[in-house]
Amino acid sequence: MKRNAHRAAFAVLAVVALALLGACSHSMHAQRHHDAHHAAVPKNIIILFGDGAASTQWELGRYTSRELRNRPFAVTDVVLKQGTLGLLTTYSADSAVTDSAAAATAMSTGYKTNNDMAGVTPDGKPVRTVMEAAKARGKRVGLVTTATVHDASPTAFSVHAKSRRESQAIVDQFLAFEPDVLMGGGRDYFLPKGKGGGMRSDGLDVMAAFGAKGYDVVQAPSALAAAAGPRLLALFADDDMDHEIDRDPAREPSPAEMATAALRVLSANSPNGFVLFLENENIDTSGHRNDAAALVRDLWAFDDAVQVALEFQRRVPDTLIIVTGDHETGGLSWTYAQKDLSSMSSSNRFYPGRAHLDLLMAIRGSLEKASDALGKKPTAEVLDAVIAKQFPGYVLDADLRALILSGKTIERNVSYLPHGLLGRMVARQTGFYWGTSGHTTEPAVVGAIGPGESAFRGYMDNTDFSRALHRLIDGR
Known about the structure:
By secondary structure, the protein is an alpha/beta fold. Helices cover 45% and strands 14% of the residues.
């Protein structure tokens, strides 16, 4: 009996030992896979750029997506949670508060520059951009934005300008640089004056010039879906593209649709891989205009594009996905506040919750749309009609009403009118307060998932972001 008991005990120990060995082996294999994943050099790099977004905006996207859409938010729930997380300082060469051109230049070239300058040092010297580095390695390159394609960020990631406002010269550089995909708004500086919304002073039709170089040139979502050539120029608006809350899907594609088309074009016949820069500028624009209702939907639209990229990565695993922004815009804080100024008692305080979110989501259009409806010198009757139509359930306080009608601001850091005043109306009733109409110094978040992701871990200067990106592009 004792021998049988010993045999049984030995058998149990043997099983446990084998299980532990197997678990250990699996753990070591998983760790080796994890380490290799972190150290590997990616073939493809997708940079998803939420202009104006920092941790405040990403958390707003996560919370509202869960509460209102009952859906996960890929930026936070996949990229930041499962990948590598870092933070970026944002100051420029001449200010603690950066603009988009200087921030994107630091993130693209590794050099600090002055506000308003793109792809150059403060003395105006051009320095190698991310897309120039990618082209030098034989990679295909794409620039996609909801802004004008000649705006600060896509410019700084590809070409060079002593001023971000040199739109015509920037477009000329794009024609010479020949990105494989160029997509967004900004048709104005591709067309001569007198042709549509053209703004060019030299009489040239640069859209036709791109076509002559073998590009598919499209201007509608239906044509975008059908584009099958090796290179693509897609322009959907004379100026910036619309906020998601205002977007007409027959006229303008969503960021997810733009991502899908760009990845289809870039991944075809790309033996050396590609680098894609995809920006949602509307997050920044929402912040400048203190437009919380537009911001929520723009964050969701950006996240839908992130999900497209993650699905591509599942099919093509040697792809690195980077989600980041250049700075925070607006000093956004969803906070509790007094219901009115009748009492400072805690009983007069409201804590934002679902009812306030529902009130926010009832708004019918962006603050820019409301501004257009008001006109430059609104009358009281027009103002009342706009509030009733676009802001159901809201009351415009007397002080804000008087300021809108007089064209005056409420304080020095509210510079977009009447947007900031309408944003203050929304804040008083929902808790979505803003500290400024401009940028702030809050560190930008960078999340990376895929081969090479560990290069973006920790607290870094935004020039370090560029250096890490260039090393991966150069295969180091």
